[in-house]
Amino acid sequence: MKALKRFITIVLFSLALVSLSACSQTTSLGSKGKDTEAAKETSISGAGEEAGAEKTEADQEEAADKEEEKDQSDETETEKAEEKEEEKMAKDFTVAEGYVYSEEKTNFVDILMENGSHMVVELYPDLAPITVENFQDLVSKNFYDGIIFHRVIKGFMIQGGDPDGVGTGGSGKHIKGEFASNGVENKLRHERGVLSMARSMMKDSASSQFFIVHQDAPHLDGEYAAFGKLVYGFETLDEIANAATDARDKPQQEVKMEKVFFVKAE
Predict the structure, then answer these.
(1) Strand, helix or coil for residue 254
(2) Close Cβ partners of 169 (under 8 Å, ≥ 6 residues apart)
(3) Burial class for 193, CB neighbours closer than 10 Å (0-12, 13-18, 19+)
(4) Are 121 and 238 in contact (CB under 8 A)?
(5) Looking at the DSSP assignment, which residues form a beta bridge with residue 50?
(6) How many CB atoms lie within 10 A of CB 204?
(7) Assigned CATH for 100-265
(8) Under DSSP, is residue 257 helix (H, G, I), strand (E, B) or coil?
(9) What is the pLDDT of residue 84?
(10) 197 - beta bridge partners?
(11) pLDDT at residue 227 above 90?
């Protein structure tokens, strides 16, 4: 009987040991699982922080690039403005005495000759508005730059404005002739220094060619559209009028307009 009780006690003790061991393993596995999850969370959290740091760095680089582009753009605009100002100043130094270059259309036009001399004409839009507008438009487009005076007759007039340089060319546009015989009152007489439009036999054929009267030519009054007058550079007019010419009244050496532009009085 005692032996049986002892056996039962041993069995129960062994079962208790087995149960205790199983609980210990379960606790260990649970702890290991938690550690693994924590490690995973730590790993994931660390990766996110690294990605965030990389994104922030990329944003900073992009912002820096944009700022650099803006600075370069500003520098380009500044350079353009400086070049424009330098160009304007250069023109200011080449205009006729008593006048300054104007970017805007005015009623004063400077004809700068290739030899550096000047003629300044004043336009009269109240007398010949269509003709003045046409001339101003051509000047604003630099149409006359580099064109020659192709016909010169001393004591009469000097004529230019033909891009072909032969007397038959024009701008491609024709305007109404603003003179008496064409039904338009125009009181400006063809006296020395008057600016007028050349044309063919057709009264509305004027285009780009013009002439400046060297000596009074009253026979032209009422037949040609006078629209301005020389106010500076009569010595230049005389110099051109005295140029040696061929049988067609064309100067033997080119008499070229280097630049024709708007000016205003100082």
Answers:
(1) coil
(2) 162, 163, 208, 209
(3) buried
(4) no
(5) none
(6) 12
(7) 2.40.100.10
(8) strand
(9) 61
(10) 210
(11) yes
